[in-house]
From TrEMBL:
The keyword Ubl conjugation does not apply. Gene3D superfamilies: Winged helix-like DNA-binding domain superfamily/Winged helix DNA-binding domain. GO terms for biological process: response to stress. InterPro entries: HTH_MarR-typ, MarR/SlyA-like, WH-like_DNA-bd_sf, WH_DNA-bd_sf. Residues 1-34 are annotated as: Disordered. SMART domains: HTH_MARR. This is DNA-binding MarR family transcriptional regulator. Keywords: DNA-binding.
Amino acid sequence: MTTQHTPGQHPPDPQQHQDHRRPNGPARPRRTHAVDTIERELTAFARRARATAARLHPDLPLVSYTLLAHIHDQRDCRATDLATHYMLDKSTVSRQLTTLEKLGLMERRPDPDDHRVQVLHTTDAGAAALTATHASRHAAYQERLADWSEADLARFAAYLLRYNNSPS
């Protein structure tokens, strides 16, 4: 029996569906089916995340949004800190920071302890945009998860933490 699932809807219960077949293909092990489902659902999640960044500013890629949020949360970070934290090339970070500066969302300031170094700060416009976007995202998550039990939410949060903290 082949099951169809639309991203974002309740997934089928894997215990009820023993036979996971590809169209015109052999049965697959449950683990393979589960990993395929995870891949598909994370792709749908990433599309929504990119749409969130676009709502902040239409010219803002997801990586820039992520860096801006990090800059806002971690005061006085440097470009090298971002490159290390996100495992990005310094040139990639530099391009993204230039975009954020041109959009008026971030600025560089001399480090108060070492004026040779620049630290990154969100501008008032950047902070306001992040706050508005966070509120919008939070409301969307609340709505999307409204019928989930506290136990389901806690398990989902724990699984996401475990996944994101796993070695690459």
